[in-house]
Amino acid sequence: MTNLISTDEIRRLQKRMNRLMQDLGLTDLESKYMDEMQKIQQRMSEIMAESDIGEGDVMVPLADVKETDDSVVVSMDLPGVDKKDVEISVTDDELRVSAKRTAVTETEEKGYHKRERSYSRFERTVKMPVAVKNEEAKARLADGVLEITLPKEMVTSRKRITID
User: 134-143: long-range contacts at Cβ-Cβ below 8 A with a sequence spacing of 24 or more?
Assistant: First the structure.
């Protein structure tokens, strides 16, 4: 699975690139590196538009859905999330996971105390490939990876249909 990059991180990188271009004098239209730098900035803008994530918006974690003989196993990355901050619900044909992450960092510098906070929300709905037994679902969160095992509904009998 791929790690998520926050929107704030992409914005900070974009600002740093703009400052770097100015510091190096690359804002001049005649610069031989201008085309490449503009392509990079354009791609970063496209990534921001594709992600559709703004400040305070919900991140959509990537999910792996694996079907075995007797169950469906869904795995997704939820880095830094505590299990008490995860909510999982299963309907007839969908699995919905929502989570929040709150991080507080403290730093002391020459008697000055600084406290910073960040808040992230994750939400993902996954369509089940087969019918599952909602009441028998089990979940486990370890090392930032959520794994949900959903036993399959077993087809008790099959009826052969003949063509007239």
Answer: 134/90, 134/91, 134/92, 137/88, 137/90, 139/86, 139/88, 141/78, 141/81, 141/83, 141/86
